[in-house]
Amino acid sequence: MPSKILFRIEGKEKENDELIKEIVVSDEEISARESLLTLAAKNDIAISNFCNGRGKCGRCKIIINFDEQGKLDINKELLSKVLKPEKILKGYILACLAFPKNNTNIEVIVPSESIESKYEVLSGKAVKITDREISGDAGVAIDIGTTTVATYLVDLSNNGVVASEGSYNGQVRFGADVMTRMNYIIENKTGDEALQNAIGATINIHLKNLSERKKFQKISKIVVSGNTVMTYLFLKKNPLEIRDGAYNNPNFKRAYTVKGRDVRLKYGAEDADVYCVPGLGNYVGGDITSDIIISEIFKEDKICLVIDVGTNGEVALGNKEWLAVCATSAGPAFEGGEVRCGMRAMKGAIDRLKIENQGRDVIYRVIGGEFNKPEGICGSGLIILIAELMRNGLIDANGKFNRKSAEKTERLRKSKYYEEQGQEIYEYVVVYGNETEGKEDISSLRSHISEASSDITINEKDLENLKYTKAAIFSGVMTLLRNTGVKFDEINKIFIAGGFGNFIDLESAILVGLFPDVEREKYKFIGNGSLDGAYRQLIDENARKTAENIASNVTYVDLSRDGNFVDEYSAALYFPHSRLDLFPTWKNFEGMRGTNEIEISDNKEIKEIKEKEKEETKEIKIAEVSKEAKEIKISEDKERQTKILKESKMFRIEGFKIEGDELEIEM
Ligand code: FES
User: Fold this and answer.
1) Do 145 and 287 share a domain, yes or no?
2) CA 175 and chain centroid, separation
3) CATH of the domain at 46
4) Which of 27, 120, 401, 514 is the most interior residue, by most CB within 10 Å?
5) pLDDT (tens digit, 9 = 90+) per residue, 147-158?
């Protein structure tokens, strides 16, 4: 027998604003063990989901009366690993771990903290928004990102942008990245329809809001820019062709033109001519074409690089004579996903910080002003945080905390959460919970680590996820350079695009190994090039022709078929990189003291051990390496020390080898 579920959704904007939605769950859905998260997603209820429903991120919290929970099959084992017992006792469970049983009625409360909230449009540098009335027809430029969607409303009589809208992509509830969403389509009979409806609904909400804010006759032109999967879903096409198709399938490079009503657009857009910016390859979509239009690298004599930092990282390289592109699945770590205290760049997010006093002090800035309680750390803050941990010697090249630093600062400690699971994972406290008491309490968007403690921390698992993300982007750049034979010093300009691109601290991004370590003057930030590029193509017919020309002449490098990519990716899985010659800034960085660095120890204990060894063996060792190569103990022989260390107090080891020095190591 089918079951009924009543979702009560707490309104985020207004207090006591509650939305009620009842859904019927079929026998088929029950026997297929569809979770409450999946069922909610299918019925347009946007519950947060940053781990693709794997019960890891803790974002999909819902409340169900404790006595009613027996009507659900709940994975309690996993639940207790993610939520604090006090929270569970209050009726909190995770929607992705709860499966309805047959013939039952149940009421679910979705708290505001589990609902994706409004997203502020981060417009690019090329566009100025002027709040004016529209005198005639309107045009619309849309950037469909994997995570967010941004829209400009344009007065076509003078081409001015008069308003903007931004929100999360309604598809987020089906998975954080394009691969997971495609898997959703494979696993669910009507999955493609659900995803197509979700993006249609998101854009229609934008159009509705814009039509309420500005009066216009009709929308006559729309330009849409997005990665290939997003463009396909917007066009009501099945994106599995992208995954399965030949890599030079001409459909990916087609500039589709449809009518608004064909792609279910409303609110004055039914008769609009909708133009989709052509993509450049399987996973390289119209968004990077738009970046290329805005950066104008296709006009340059010298070679330029464009890096679009997003969930789907895209890279373009070339000049007026040739262009090559590739795409890399970076994941959502820089957008707040897969990092326990990560969040998006919004009020309450820490976006700037500095670590001082060997890790004892942290100075930070919160978006929205000092009276806002810090809730988590956004992408730009996370990049600075890693760089600061490196600068202060608190982490090594693998992103593991230097255990010895725990003696210097209490901020570095074993994670209780992981300890309970029998794992030794260290974490660093960025903000203690009690530091924020008394400040305005905004709804928590942080993940479950905040349940166990109100401290904002970063742990070794987070660092690993961030390392994967930065490695994916950097190795995409390296593979493209390798395939085209271009060297770093031949690149004349580097354009950084992407929603949060404008806010990245360049020095930190280079230090962690996200961007190439080249002259800083070469870097230009273009912000949301996809949105600005869509706008340019909305108002200028020639820009569309240029886009189509780029699409037919570009070389697409498919990283999934490129043997070099795996090597480049593995080499990039270090902070900053395994090849330090690529990162001269880090090599020369003064004051670094990670576990990969050694210095002459004046630790009493070591001295005593050495003395004892000398006595016992009468053998003078130059240095000893611990089994894990975590530390090296230098001989007490002053003459040898001088010889070995020359002028420098510190030098670097690569695994067990000392490079460029005379140190001999006895194993
Ligand atoms: S979506 Fe349920 S825990 Fe991540």
Assistant:
1) yes
2) 13
3) 3.10.20.30
4) 514
5) 889 999 999 999
Do 349 and 255 share a domain, yes or no? no
pTM for the full predicted model? 0.74
Dist CA 347 CA 503 (whole Å): 15
Range of the domain at 155: 138-295
**Ligand 1 centroid – CA 330 distance (Å):** 19
Distance (Å) from CA 116 to ligand 1 centroid: 13
277 in a domain, yes or no? yes
Residue (of 342, 23, 36, 38) closest to 180 by Cα position: 38
* Terminal C-alpha separation, the chain: 69
Q: Output the CA 98–ligand 1 centroid distance in Å.
A: 11
* Residue 329 CB neighbour total at 10 angstroms: 18
Is residue 403 pLDDT above 80, yes or no?
yes
Reported as a pLDDT band with limits 50, 70 and 90, residue 15 is very low
Check if the beta carbon of residue 606 is closer than 8 Å to that of residue 635: no
Which of 38, 56, 110 best tests ligand 1's pocket when mutated (most atoms within 8 Å of CB)? Answer: 56
Residue 572 within any structural domain of the chain: no
Of ligand 1's listed atoms, the one at least distance from the Cα of 47 is 1
Q: Give distance in angstroms: CA of 173 to centre of ligand 1.
A: 10
Same domain, 416 and 278: no
Residue in 273, 272, 174 with CA at minimum distance from that of residue 230:
174
Q: Which residues line ligand 1 (CB under 6 A)?
A: 37, 49-51, 53, 55-60, 94, 96
How would residue 247 be classed by pLDDT, with cut points 50, 70 and 90?
A: low
Per-residue model confidence as pLDDT tens digits over 621-655: 444 443 333 344 444 555 544 444 433 323 333 33
Same domain, yes or no, for 107 and 146? Answer: no
